[in-house]
Write a structure and sequence with these properties.
With 463 residues, this protein is an all-alpha fold. The chain contains 19 helices and no strands. The structure holds tryptophan.
Length: 463
């Protein structure tokens, strides 16, 4: 254990795990998914997935990690289930895919910091040109991967933990300030209504599927990132309260990011909310205009600081994504940590190049694939997101529950949880977690996985 490293205390773990969870998923993709999913209806389903289904998976992942003190692939094997290694490998591959495109978006965020620092507010309307400028964005993405690798190479407590402790609180303060500002804008109320008053006619299977994928993605679940982080957690820590805190922090920050965004969208569209469903460009096109209206000085200050902090939030997430394959090759291939870090970072950066090119620069990658029954082609980057976030992560979550309930057995899971939670046995939370991993998660996640798979990729809609 000594040379694997560990978190220095419980708070260190919680902040690092929350740092992993809070990232572009909360501030970039959550608002655009809500916008595309018709507003409050999406929000409701999202909350349901986070608290009812994802939370038990999170507890399970952390418990498996702490029990085995290993990377995801090694963990299943160490518990005596060699065949389940494949689930760990699936997770590691998902992590690699996610990091490859995530790093490109992180590069956008970092690039926006630079643009706004120089007072270039027009960048909002030039978003599609900006992401096509692959040499510029590629350079930002390269810088981003470099910094990520540097932090990961510094190890668990010195690098990952220290960075999270400072950056997270600053980001939250900043977003709260922007919430207050956006509530003072004209039409703010229409934005809030869109966000908080559900219209159930918007609730389709694909909206539910997206909410599920988004919940897993935002909580960093389903691929073993929390198995890996859990492997650095002390035996006396209470996994249940830690997981509750991480979930609340992540959902809370996504929620306030929505409170910040939708009044701004309403303001910029005179209350029509048209364009709320525009997709991946939402924060990048909307925010610069809102910052500009703060005046030249304040606009530059707040605008650039916002994108800087967004980059930092992304950084604590990229760090956790890189940590997973690194822990895997350190544990299994006995490569030195430092070398493992730089090798993986280089590979993943290169794997991100198709995503980089898929935003208008290369016709081939921009219209990469047309799903059966779909009208338009999907870009490589969207395809990678559909495969990794919306398909592999929920599948991973489903299989992790099945593993814990039927291979490892709930008795062992409970014993591991009870180590840091003396009154756990016999409590309501124990009964709920056991019900969730044995029945609820396998059933709901499994069904949703199949239905969304059929619908997204094959155009089959059963209801
Ligand atoms: N949760 C992060 C976000 O919201 C992204 C992320 C980090 C992630 N680590 C992960 C997603 C592991 C899935 C799995 O931005």
């Amino acid at each position: 254990m000594s040379n694997r490293g560990s978190f220095s205390n419980k708070l260190g773990f919680i902040l690092a795990a929350a740092g992993s969870a809070v990232g572009l998923g909360n501030i970039w993709s959550f608002p655009f998914e809500v916008g595309a999913g018709g507003g409050a209806a999406f929000l409701l389903v999202y909350l349901f997935f986070c608290f009812i289904l994802c939370f038990p998976v999170m507890v399970t992942e952390i418990a498996i990690g702490r029990k085995t003190q290993l990377n995801p692939a090694g963990a299943y094997e160490a518990l005596g289930f060699k065949k389940w290694r494949i689930l760990g490998l699936l997770g590691i591959i998902s992590g690699v895919v996610i990091l490859s495109f995530y790093n490109v978006v992180a590069g956008w965020a970092f690039g926006y910091f630079i643009e706004l620092l120089s007072g270039h507010f027009e960048i909002g309307s030039q978003f599609s040109t900006f992401i096509k400028d692959v040499f510029k964005v590629g350079l930002y993405a390269m810088v981003f991967m470099f910094v990520t690798a540097f932090i990961v190479s510094k190890g668990v407590s010195g690098g990952i933990e220290r960075a999270s402790k400072i950056l997270m609180p600053t980001l939250i303060t900043m977003i709260l300030g922007l919430v207050f500002y956006s509530l003072t804008l004209d039409h703010a109320f229409e934005g809030i209504k869109f966000y908080l008053v559900p219209d159930f006619s918007e609730l389709t299977l694909s909206v539910m599927g997206n909410a599920m994928g988004q919940a897993f993605f935002s909580l960093s679940l389903g691929m073993g990132a929390l198995i890996t982080y859990g492997s650095y957690v002390g035996k006396n820590d209470n996994i249940v309260t830690s997981a509750a805190f991480i979930t609340l922090a992540d959902v809370g920050i996504a929620f306030i990011a929505g409170l910040m965004m939708f009044p701004m969208v309403a303001y910029l569209t005179d209350g029509t909310m048209e364009g709320a469903g525009q997709g991946a460009g939402l924060i990048f096109t909307v925010l610069p205009g809102a910052f500009e209206s703060l005046g030249p000085l304040l606009g530059v200050l707040i605008g650039s600081l916002f994108f800087l902090l967004l980059s930092f939030a992304a950084l604590t997430s990229t760090v956790s994504l890189l940590e997973v394959p690194v822990a895997y090759i350190v544990d299994e291939k006995k490569i030195k940590r430092n070398r493992a870090v730089w090798i993986m970072a280089t590979i993943i950066f290169v794997l991100g190049i198709p995503s980089l090119l898929s935003n208008g620069y290369s016709g081939f990658f921009s219209s990469f694939i047309t799903y059966v029954g779909a009208e338009n082609a999907t870009s490589f980057m969207d395809f990678a997101q559909n495969v990794a976030n919306d398909t592999f992560l929920p599948l991973g979550g489903c299989l992790i529950s099945i593993f814990a309930a039927y291979a490892w057995k709930t008795k062992n899971l409970n014993e591991e949880i009870a180590l840091g939670y003396p009154n756990y046995m016999g409590s309501f939370i124990q009964k709920y977690l056991n019900f969730a991993v044995t029945i609820l998660c396998p059933l709901v996640l499994g069904t949703m996985f199949l239905l969304t798979l059929l619908q997204t990729f094959f155009g089959v809609t059963l209801f």
